[in-house]
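From the methods appendix. Each design record in this collection lists the discretized structure first, followed by the designed amino acid sequence. Records were kept in a plain field format so they could be parsed without special tools. The example shown here is representative of the layout used throughout.

RECORD:
C-ALPHA CELLS (279 positions):
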C-alpha cells in the first residue's frame, strides 16, 4: 500500500508540474486510487495516486491516453509518472459523475461516449484478456471471502466467444462517466486495452445500479433498436462473467489493502452472481 504524507506528495506533484503546489486537498472519491485536488498559482488539477504499488504497468495507460486524444472524450492529462502511477489532469469546473448527474439524457449521453470510443475502431499494443485477468486476481487471493468454484464453469463459455477486439475502456463505473453542461467525458483508462466491445456494454450495465427502464433504453440506443437474441445471450454470459471477475478483483484488493469498501464490493458481486439484470 502507498503510505505517503501530504508534504511528500506535494513535492512529487510540484516536480511533475514544475511549479509550486499551494493547496492540496484529499477528495472522497476513487475506489482503487486516492484522488486529490491540487492548486498552483496558475491552475487547478486533479491528482490520482494508486492505493497499491506496482499493481500494473502504467506505460499502456499512457499509450492509450495519447491514442484517444483525437476523440475528445478524456480529461486533459498534464503529467504522468510511470513508476508510481501518479497522474495529474486539468480540473474541470462543474463536472458531475454519472451518479451526480440527474438529467433525463444521461443514458443517451453515455451511449454517445461508448459509440465514440467503439466506432473509432482503435487498437492499442495490448489486449485485456478477461480470462487471464480472472486467473491473475484469483491467484493473488490469500483469504477467499466466498466459494467461487461453482461459478468458474462460465470460463468455458466465455472461451467459445470470438468477437473482434478493439480498444475498450473496460471500467464503466459511475466515477469514470462524467458530464458538464457542455460536454461528456470518459476518464481513467487504467484498465483500458483491446477487448470485446460487449464487455464494455456489460461493464456499464452491471456497475451502475440502473433501473429496468434505463437498461432497456441503453440497449435500444446502443444497438440501434436491433438487439438480436444471439447478442442478448452473449451479453448474459458477460454479465455473469463480470460479477465473477470483479468479485475476485475486490477480494484481491481487500487482501492487499484491508479496506472494507473492497469487501463490500466483493459481497455485492457475489450476490449478483445469483441473479440477472438482463431480460
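DESIGN:
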Amino acid at each position: 500500500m502507498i503510505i505517503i504524507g501530504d508534504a511528500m506528495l506535494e513535492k512529487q506533484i510540484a516536480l511533475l508540474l514544475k511549479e509550486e503546489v499551494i493547496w492540496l486537498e484529499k477528495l472522497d472519491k476513487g475506489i482503487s486510487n486516492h484522488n486529490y485536488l491540487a492548486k498552483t498559482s496558475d491552475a487547478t488539477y486533479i491528482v490520482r495516486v494508486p492505493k497499491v504499488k506496482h499493481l500494473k504497468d502504467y506505460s499502456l495507460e499512457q499509450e492509450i491516453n495519447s491514442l484517444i486524444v483525437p476523440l475528445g472524450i478524456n480529461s486533459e492529462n498534464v503529467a504522468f509518472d510511470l513508476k508510481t502511477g501518479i497522474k495529474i489532469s486539468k480540473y474541470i469546473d462543474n463536472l458531475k459523475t454519472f451518479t451526480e448527474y440527474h438529467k433525463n439524457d444521461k443514458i443517451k449521453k453515455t451511449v454517445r461516449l461508448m459509440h465514440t470510443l467503439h466506432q473509432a475502431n482503435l487498437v492499442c499494443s495490448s489486449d485485456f484478456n478477461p480470462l487471464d485477468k480472472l486467473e491473475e486476481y484469483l491467484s493473488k487471493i490469500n483469504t477467499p471471502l466466498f466459494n467461487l468454484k461453482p461459478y468458474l464453469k462460465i470460463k468455458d463459455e466465455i472461451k467459445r466467444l470470438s468477437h473482434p477486439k478493439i480498444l475498450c475502456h473496460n471500467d464503466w463505473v459511475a466515477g469514470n462517466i462524467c458530464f458538464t453542461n457542455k460536454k461528456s467525458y470518459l476518464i481513467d483508462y487504467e484498465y483500458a486495452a483491446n477487448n470485446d466491445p460487449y464487455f464494455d456494454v456489460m461493464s456499464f450495465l452491471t456497475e451502475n445500479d440502473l433501473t429496468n427502464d434505463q437498461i432497456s433504453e441503453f440497449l435500444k440506443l446502443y444497438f440501434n433498436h436491433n438487439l438480436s437474441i444471439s447478442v442478448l445471450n452473449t451479453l448474459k454470459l458477460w454479465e455473469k462473467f463480470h460479477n465473477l471477475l470483479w468479485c475476485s478483483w475486490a477480494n484481491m484488493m481487500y487482501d492487499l489493502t484491508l479496506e472494507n469498501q473492497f469487501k463490500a464490493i466483493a459481497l455485492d458481486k457475489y450476490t449478483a452472481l445469483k441473479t440477472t439484470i438482463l431480460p
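APPENDIX NOTE: The two ends are 41 Å apart (CA to CA).
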